[in-house]
Every structure is written in structure tokens, then in C-alpha cells.
Amino acid sequence: xxxxxxxxxxxxxxxxxxxxxxxxxxxxxxxxxxxxxxxxxxxxxxxxxxxxxxxxxxxxxxxxxxxxxxxxxxxxxxxxxxxxxxxxxxxxxxxxxxxxxxxxxxxxxxxxxxxxxxxxxxxxxxxxxxxxxxxxxxxxxxxxxxxxxxxxxxxxxxxxxxxxxxxxxxxxxxxxxxxxxxxxxxxxxxxxxxxxxxxxxxxxxxxxxxxxxxxxxxxxxxxxxxxxxxxxxxxxxxxxxxxxxxxxxxxx
Length: 252
Fold this sequence. Notes:
This protein is mainly alpha-helical and about 250 residues long.
């Protein structure tokens, strides 16, 4: 029993602040720090906030677009590194965008956009998120490739199928669980990402994390607690889906 105390203490340390935010999102009072009774009024305020709705729409556009690009490029990158170009250096370069600190990526992308004279907007954030999303998808798909049997692809080619047919009918279905898991991970990372979006977004295209940051600067309100609870629920659901698909990938 005593051996489990550090384990439970760690969980309490991690989750108590989050649970407080969730509980205070149902506070009927105006103060985020004192309980004024149970109520859902702040969720109503959240639904009627135009600035938050705009940020949410921008975030979903960026997340969906960057996930689509990252899924295609990440899958092709993983297959190319695993099946055609085996290099530890290229493997390291492929995973670098995920490992690098966000601030380094943000400054580098901003410098690159300035170099090519690209006007910042929603598309600049989308492309920036696609960079680290591609690396995340490639890492997940590479894990799936380690447990797939290359003999199936060889058999397909021996039976007369060309490279494209083999990829579409053998490789792609085999990698499908890993591709879906990687796409969900890329989507979740994009929705939650703040630093890179802050550096690469235009003034008229804020994402939801940027809107939250601008609201928090003037004080925390129960509306922020309600928004944090909604984001927590969405993120938690996406993470569970990724874990479920990852386990499915490992069993097959």
C-alpha cells in the first residue's frame, strides 16, 4: 500500500487543478474563484460569444486542412523511409519537427515566411501545423510498418501488380489503423497548439488558443473555465481514440 502513495500523489498533483477548472465551469456565480451554486449559464455565454466562435472555426479549418496534408505526406514519408530509403540521418530529420521546441519552430517558420514574403493568414498557420503534423503521422505509421509483413507486398509484385496497385490494395489497407491514429494525433496537436500559431497567424485570423490567451490576459472568467472543459472533453476523446487504434495496430 505504501508503495502506491507516490503513484496516487502524482495523479492527484496532475488532475486536481484540471478537476477544479471543470467544477468551476458549472459555477452559477460571476467569480471564477468562489462557488455560487450550480448552473450552466456560462456554457450559454460561451455559445453566444462571437469571438470564440470565430476562433473555433479558424481552429477547425486549420486542424482539418493541416491533418489532411500531414496524413498524406506523413504516410508517404513513412513508407519511403521504411521501404525504399533506409537512413538513420533521414529518420532523425523526419522526426525533428516533433522534437524541436515550439518556439524554435515558430521563429524558424516566421523567418521562412518573411524570406519568401508570404503574407500571414490562416493558410500560413495551416502550413505551419502541417509541418509538425507530418512528422507525427510519419512516426505513428512507421510503428505500424514495423509489424507489417513486407512479404505480402513482394507477393503482390510477383503476381504482376505494379507499384501503385500494390500500394493501394496491400500497403494502404495494412497501414490503415496507423494512418487513422496518426491523423487523430495530428488533429489533436493542431487544435491545442498555441506558440506556432501565435507567431504565424495574421491579425484577422486568430485560432482558438490565441483567443483564449487574449481573454486570459484581462482576467480569468467562468466562461474560460467552460471553454477549457469543452476542449478537455474533445482532447480526451481524441486521445482515447488514438490509444484504441494504437492498441489495435499492435495486435494485428
